[in-house]
Amino acid sequence: MNFFEHQARARRRTWGLVGLFALALLCIVVLVDGVALLFFGGYHNLADVDRTMRLAESGKAPGLYDTYVDPNLGLLFWVSLLTAGGIGLTSQIRILTLRGGGGAVARGLGGTLVTPDTTDPLRRRLRNVVEEMAIAAGVPVPEIYVLDREPGINAFAAGWTPSDAAVAVTQGALETLSRDELQGVVAHEFGHILNGDMRLNIRLMGLLFGILVLALIGRFLLGSGRRSLSRNDRGVVSMGLALVAVGYVGLFFGRLIKASVSRQREYLADASAVQFTRQPDGLAGALKKIGASGVGSVLQADPEEVSHMLFSKGFSSQLFATHPPLVDRIRAIQPRFDPREFTQIAARMQRESQTRLSGEDVAREQQGKAAPGGAGGFRLDAETLIDRIGQPGLGQVMVAGLLAAAIPRTLERAAHSHEWALAVICYLLIDRDPEVRESQLLMVAQALGQETERQLQMLLSETPELEPELRIPLLEIAFPTLRRRPERDLTTLRALVDRLIHADGRVELFEYAIAKLLARQIEDVLDPSHGGLGGRGKLSESTREVLDLLTILAHQGHADSRSAHCALIAGLKRLGVKPEAINTIKEDWLDSEWLNQAWSSRLDAALEKLDGVRLADKQRLLGAMAATVMADGQVAAAELELLRAICAALRMPLPVFEQAAANP
């Protein structure tokens, strides 16, 4: 199952969730109507009484409808409307409170942000692992949190999109797991990020809160009635008890919904983690330590609302479990596992120190986050690229570690700094020409202030030029810090980036890529709930946009019009365009003036339209882009940056590539 199939499956689950929620809502409304009839039902006028008496005189016994429902239709209408509307409104309000993304969920559980300048070796190791995973997968580095009051081994990823995601790990996981085991847990959470599970989880939290709100109202009425023993307050207590009962019916449905959408996703995320790291023993070891640990994975904070998004179950109840049995998950990775090993693992855990990194882990951190040995690259062909989207392998993780380690120390520290992050983005777009550079520095001073200009000049003096393959990783590392800037700063930065790019009167490939990546990430942060992957459009309705996109890729990535024409034809053939249509595209099309002057605006328009096409068509388009770029058997770093920017605009995370696959 590739990235697009995962995303389509997540969308189907969302519709299934809506259906389950509607069913639960219907049952709750019926129960509340029953409570309303019990306390407020009866004959409300003489016409109701007269109707019942006529039925009795005619020899027909009044039924339940005639006795209870018909006289109270007005009451039932308003109670049903208020109940359904109240639950729906409460759900939406809860979802709106989560617009802050994954960080809001993590902070709600008592999470502490792991700052880039942390000196704690355990948290430093966690940050290194998360950054490696993000760069390898081609997504922005998520915010990182530690639930420092939780001794159990657990973790979760939350957010609307990869741009506003957060990964949280318990203190118990940091202190208990080795680096390989921690990497397995983090890879599992990235599986949820890349498989489209996070958006579903956020919506599930909102819907379940709406279902459970009746129980909260009932508890409030119980508390109010207990303060007095008057007869009137006894009715309030009775109503409170009835609403609590209805609320627990809601709890039943809530847990049923969570169980129905959660269990299989854990197996898929486990499989993604094993593919990501190519180290099944790491993930299996983490699961084994959960089974052997006395506290397991149970959270001290109330985990009911987030139980469906945790790495392992957050509370001890077996009823409607949101996770498969632990032994079954381990055996899916290591079929010969014997549960009796838990005893041996527990004894070993007691002997080991849980408060510091092992010597092996320290050595690995000092070597630069990842070792290059054994990395298996992949060729940039259509089929392999489609399979790798959202599912990078060990080779990509290792390359990501090497890229992160190769970033100059000054730039890395600046990217992690709240005060310097804006200067880092500007640094990536500064021109080599002294006259253009001077003009750009003036723009920075006017938009962001003289302090940012001074910081930018210091970065330029320390590192006058950055290797091309390090530009995108540096942007991805800087973005978690950048997203914590005020909305005003992000809006100003976006406008400034456009001015910096056009300062020399032309748009380079890497400049366009940086701007497009940054724009997509800022859009998702400012309005994360609207970051859906696919729409309902068809490629057949966007013929002009598809041709523009493939033409620009062919023109920008090939030295002459002949090779560019061959690349365009290869992309169109991959897309399944009929030969008679392909024959109409002549070689001089690649010499059009707009390809040199207005290609960026044409590409912007094309991407805006193509972002709304359905998932299956995006998969076809990705194959055509890969065929176009690799028509000559090689790909330059600038081409990869442009391809990554296009994929980001279409919400397809492009993994990092082996150095052997690209030519500078």
Structural overview:
The protein has about 675 residues and is mainly α. It has 30 helices and four strands. The chain has four domains: about 160 residues, no CATH class; about 180 residues, Metalloproteases ("zincins"), catalytic domain (Zincin-like, 2-Layer Sandwich), CATH 3.30.2010; about 120 residues, no CATH class; about 120 residues. The protein is globular and about 80 Å long.
The count of strands amounts to 4
The CATH superfamily name of the largest domain is: Metalloproteases ("zincins"), catalytic domain
Helix content: 55-70%
Structural domains: how many: 4
CATH class of the largest domain: Alpha Beta
Name the descriptors.
664 residues, Zincin-like, 4-stranded mixed beta sheet, 4 strands, 65% helix, globular, disordered C terminus
Reconstruct the topology from this structure.
Blueprint: H1 3-40, H2 46-57, H3 64-69, H4 73-97, H5 102-108, E1 112-113, H6 121-137, E2 143-147, E3 155-158, E4 166-170, H7 171-176, H8 179-194, H9 197-226, H10 231-277, H11 280-292, H12 326-333, H13 341-351, H14 359-366, H15 382-388, H16 394-406, H17 409-415, H18 421-427, H19 434-448, H20 450-462, H21 471-482, H22 487-501, H23 509-526, H24 543-557, H25 561-575, H26 579-582, H27 594-597, H28 599-610, H29 615-629, H30 637-649
Helix pairs in contact: 1-4, 1-9, 1-10, 1-29, 4-9, 6-8, 6-16, 8-10, 8-11, 9-10, 11-12, 11-13, 15-29, 17-21, 18-20, 18-21, 19-20, 19-22, 22-23, 23-30, 24-25, 24-28, 24-29, 25-29
